[in-house]
Write a structure and sequence with these properties.
Keywords: Oxidoreductase
Shape: globular
GO molecular function, one term: oxidoreductase activity
Helix content: 40-55%
Order of helices and strands: EHEEHEHEHEHEHH
Radius of gyration: 17 Å
Protein name: Short-chain dehydrogenase
CATH topology: Rossmann fold
Strand content: 5-15%
Structural class: alpha/beta
CATH superfamily: NAD(P)-binding Rossmann-like Domain
Number of strands: 7
Largest sheet: 7 strands, parallel
InterPro entries: NAD(P)-bd_dom_sf, SDR_fam
Pfam family, one: adh_short
CATH architecture: 3-Layer(aba) Sandwich
Number of domains: 1
Length: about 230
Amino acid sequence: MKIEGSVALVTGANRGLGKAYTEELLARGAAKVYAAARDTASITDPRVIPLQLDITDPASVAAAAAQAGDVQLLVNNAGIATGAGVLDGEDALRREMETNYLGPVRVSAAFAPILGANGGGAIVNMLSALSWLSLPNTAGYSAAKAAAWAATNALRLALKEQGTLVTAVHVGYVDTDMAAHVDGPKVPPRDVVTQVLDAVEAAQPEVLADETSRRVKAGLSGDLRNLYPALSA
């Protein structure tokens, strides 16, 4: 689909990667950009339309869909990272699943008929290299992103007939507040967004936005111990 002249909605648009999406969409000539966040006061760019949206709240999602019936491109970007390990209890794990898995599925389901009515359009799901790899302090996040990856594949097939492109985005650490604690290579948000919007315009179903995501995906077909060296110790 063409970005120029389109109507887009970005979740988690108040900062970081979400804000980079809104800025690049506008730079590419999007006709309208809904910037969705739980607190619309955090949306300060006068060029966008603030939209109240809590992706964990079905009523909030339904209200957003009723307000934004002209959307052609949905960017499921909102997410959290609790740092929960697999043995840290269910509360944090449920928060990860609710926000990083059920949230995007809920929003996609609400906007799928809208996208279909508006010509098909596209959905972008921000996933992660951690969809395929789990670390001690990312177990909750990895599990939720793995579930979101599976849902994205299913969504792609479910919406094919109505002409909706579903693009999955895998990336390692992005230079945003969420990864501020990480001491290592980080991808600039604009680099990710540029690749993603190029892929949408080229009707590509997947973006591996950095070397980390490419390496981890390639490693899935090899010996598990290559991805988890600790298993060889």
